[in-house]
Write a structure and sequence with these properties.
alpha+beta; Acyl_CoA_acyltransferase (chains A, B); GNAT_dom (chains A, B); 4 helices; transferase (chains A, B); Acetyltransferase (GNAT) family protein (chains A, B); 7-stranded mixed beta sheet; 7 strands
Chain lengths: ~160, ~160
């Protein structure tokens, strides 16, 4: 990520600016389990309604990436954070996901979480798996066939985890 | 389970009859991650609002157990069911959990699910782990310290899975 890219927290009112990224990524059906026809209102609610918090990575007024963190469980599991990240297809290879990951880990630490967990990392999304491993995550579980990949069919998903 | 125990689906209007079981079990903070002070309204909403479905195991007019099944994820993961089960402390050792497990697997099959996944099996809950294994589940993941056990502190949780 160049110095010109900034990451900041946003509210529900700004979420729509990332909708072209969000809708494009879920429509491909190869990395996220959201229904490919999820509505803007549903996505906004899931990513910006407390306790979820939402962040933009921007450059020159353009949204290049979006991420959310939230407690992975309510109650006696709410010391573990969960994160989700999306990068504009046009901004791949620029280190945006890596920068958002580090930013999210710091935000999670500051919020008092002691670990971060990803519940559904699609095993065929090797770029993501390698990236999370580079940022300290390990695969702690493999659920067979839990993701219906748009082109590959039933596909394993990984549960990934790291302490903060 | 004796022949006198019957399992049937219930609606939100009947959920309260299981509240003494539900509230007692979550108050102990050793098997469920729900906040120990979860309200009846919150519990009822999570266990009886579609797509969640809720079932009672009853004998002689008494509720001895309650379970719920629902899709484990929305969208491209909704072919995998999730189940949660509670047995009255007074009815332990009677095979109620086992009967509810078998019943839920059949209900999930009929509803078109192709697998069942448990996301948070507390590793110290050995009775449950052995029971699920007996019913065909395997441990597919171990998340370290993801459950704040009331007396044991941070405790590993298992992700368990079986095909239907």
């Amino acid at each position: 990520m160049t110095d010109a890219t900034a990451i900041r927290e946003i509210g529900a009112d700004e979420f729509e600016r990332a909708w072209s990224i969000f809708s494009t990524i879920i429509a491909s059906g190869d990395t996220y389990s959201y229904p490919p026809d999820l509505s803007l209102a549903q996505a906004r609610d899931m990513w910006t309604t407390a306790p979820a918090r939402c962040f933009f990575a921007e450059r020159g007024g353009d949204v290049l990436g979006i991420y959310t963190i939230r407690p992975n469980q309510i109650g006696l599991g709410d010391h573990v954070a969960n994160g989700s990240y999306m990068v504009s297809p046009e901004a791949r290879g620029m280190g945006i996901a890596s920068a958002m990951c580090e930013h999210s880990l710091e935000q999670a630490r500051r919020a008092g979480f002691t670990a971060m967990q990803f519940n559904i990392v699609v095993s065929t999304n090797r770029t993501a798996v390698r990236l999370w491993q580079k940022h300290g995550f390990t695969i702690v579980g493999t659920v067979p066939g839990a993701f219906r990949h748009a082109t590959l069919g039933p596909t394993d998903i990984y549960v990934m985890h790291r302490y903060l």
